[in-house]
C-alpha cells in the first residue's frame, strides 16, 4: 500500500526517489564540480571543527578548525550556523564551553555559558532482527559468498541498471501498532492511532554472511516511537577525541514491551501458510520462546539505526530546559544557531519524519534568518 497515504499502517513495497539509482549524500551535494565552482560557496575539505569561540560577551561568531595539522579560524559577519548533526553538534558546543558548567570544569574545560541540556535527550531508533534458514539459493547470500557472481551483478548494474542490484536490501516494509492492552499504564509515544509503534524491514538474505553456507531471510524490527533517552557527553578535553555516546537503547520498559511485541508479530507473520516449504527453521527465538527469553534476545541484539536526534533540543523561549529557542538560536547567546536534527524533541521519529524535519529546518528557517539579518543591517546584508 501507499506509505505516503497518511495512514501508513500495513505492509508495502519500499518507496524511494533515487536520481539515476545513486543515493544522494553530502559529497554529491557539495563536492561535485558544479557546487565547488560556485563563487558564493567555499567548502573546506579534510577539516574538523575544534570549537566555536566567543567574539564578545554572550556572542559566538568565530569557529576554530584544524586542517592538515594547522589550526585556523573563521569569523562570521552576522551569524554562525552549526549543522554538525546530533552527535557532532553537542560535541562542538561542549568543547566550546557551552553546556553543563560542572561537567565541563571536571574535564578542565572553561565553562562560558551554562546550558545543561546540551548533549542530553538523545533519541534513536532501536533495531533487532530475526533470521530464518530458507529453501532457496535465490537470495543475496549466494552473491556474498561468490566474488565472481557479485562482480557480474555489479557490472550488469553499471552497464544497464538491471539485474539483482535493482532492488534495495530491504524491499518490503511494514508499520504496525502494539495492542492497547499491552501498553496499559504507559503513555502512547506515537503521533496518533494511525501511526506505528514499530516497523518491519524484510530482506532477501541474512544480515551478515554465515559460515554454514545456508541461504536465509531476515526481518529487522525497529521501535519507531522510543521513550528511552540517552546522551552525548565528553570524556576528554581534547576536541579531536571521540565523544561518549550512550543511546540508552531499550532503557525504558515501554520500549522493551514494544520490542517484544514486534518479535512476537514477526514470528506470527512467518507462521502463515504462504511460507510453508520456504522457511526451514528460525535462528534464535521462536514461537515457543518465553517473554523473558525474547527480552534477553532483544537486549543482546539491540542495535542503533543511526537516526540520533534531540541532543540540542528546542524549547519555548524562557524555558529552563532545552538548547535552542524556536528561532533556532542557542539560548542566551547571540550569533549562533543550530539547524540539524539535534533540535527535535518529539518522541515519534520515523525515517520519513527525519527526512521531512531536515527539509523543514533548511527551508522554513532560512526566510526568518534572512529577514532578521536584513533588518539588522539593511537589505542585501552579506551572510
UniProtKB/TrEMBL annotation:
Keywords: FAD, Flavoprotein. It comes from the Eukaryota. Pfam families: GMC_oxred_C (PF05199), GMC_oxred_N (PF00732). Residues 85-99 form the Glucose-methanol-choline oxidoreductase N-terminal domain. InterPro entries: FAD/NAD-bd_sf, GMC_OxRdtase, GMC_OxRdtase_N, GMC_OxRtase_C. Its cofactor is FAD. GO terms for molecular function: flavin adenine dinucleotide binding; oxidoreductase activity, acting on CH-OH group of donors. Residues 1-23 are annotated as: Disordered. Residues 14-23 have a biased composition (Polar residues). Belongs to the GMC oxidoreductase family. This is Glucose-methanol-choline oxidoreductase N-terminal domain-containing protein. It comes from Mycena citricolor. The lineage of its organism: Eukaryota, Fungi, Dikarya, Basidiomycota, Agaricomycotina.
